[in-house]
Here is the input.
Amino acid sequence: MNKHDALPNNRVKRMPTHETIERRTCWLTGWRVGLLLATLCAQAVPLAASAATGPAPAPVIVFAATTIQKPLQELAQQFNHGQTRFEFCFDSSGVLAKKIENGAAADLFVAADTGWTDKLAQKGLQLPGTTNTILASTALIVIQPAGNTPIQALSDLPHLNRVAIGDPATVPAGTYAREALTNAGAWEGLAGKLVCAGNATAVIKLVELGEVDAGIVMTGAPVNQEKVRTTLVIPGMLHRPILYSAMRLKNGGAPEKAQAFFTFLGTPAAQAVLRNFGFTPAPEPASRAVAGPR
Here is the structure.
């Protein structure tokens, strides 16, 4: 029996969506990679020891898409010579946006889709007097286990046994993947073969384990090049531009330090770090005014 057919049916759930195609093609995975589907939060760990005595200052709390984890952590180390305390929570943009809507305290939100930051601004959760900023853009890639025969085009994916993407309901990479696959005429051919994961890390882990034949993530995602290889860069014409948007939130506890870090993200030094991790920095990070609460 093929190992892809050996998934325990009682440990997999159908994707909760009203869209017929997704309901019959997309499965939420929570079995082998259950731990990876949880939000990754670092609990206010200082990046450098402080010589000051007394109560520690409030950390800058940053909620950010999983795919931008490594560059943000490096930028936090560079900012203020590592003397500012940060608390990071990384997950899919949609999951983090829902946490913020439900009252989670955070100073900054960095999403892999402008729709999520716009939504929070429209709900009145943005710090008054501030605007969203486009930090960078990126591309979609197909990754496969290192030993697999590489695909040549998206039209090859329906010929595979299983393909992993992020859950289109909450993971921007999954939303973009659905757009690209639909426009390439490959979406319906993947009926019953798609495995939807909670974030990019989970997609990558499924590919590393060989539980799927391919996965779709964004460039910048933390791919282990020894276990996984990029076999296809998906043409940008097949989906909307992938833009990372940052916003200030009104319920954070360190507004001055958060504003300083927010400004730092748009500097040439910060943009160079993003470039090193595979992102295409905005030439001059652009502010975006968003309609107020409605």
User: Anything to note?
Assistant: Residues 1-25, 29-39, 43-52 have pLDDT under 50 and may be disordered.
